[in-house]
Amino acid sequence: MKYKVVLKKSKEGYSVSCPGLPGCWSQGKTEIEALENIQDAIREYLEAVVKISKGTKVREVEVPV
User: Fold this and answer.
1) What are the helix and strand counts (H, E) for the chain?
2) How close are the terminal C-alpha atoms of the chain, in Å?
């Protein structure tokens, strides 16, 4: 899966968020580190969604852009 992320440079490094997943964000000292960290954050976010959704029907849809 691909997700768009938003990188913001700061004095401490980079913050990065995933607008498609509210509340999913991370940071890193370098752009590369921040991008690696957001990948972990996205994985953990999606795992939490699966756990929370247990007992409900979950489907995937593809949206062409």
Assistant:
1) 1, 3
2) 14
pLDDT per position as a tens digit, 20-51: 999 999 999 999 999 999 999 999 999 998 88
Contacts of 11 (CB under 8 A, 6+ apart): none
The answer to whether the CB of 32 falls within 8 A of the CB of 39 is no
pTM over the 0.85 mark: no
**Where do we find the tokens 């852009």?**
65
Q: Detail the DSSP E strand segments found in the chain.
A: 6-9, 14-17, 25-28
Considering the segment(s) 6-52 as one domain, its CATH architecture is 2-Layer Sandwich (3.30)
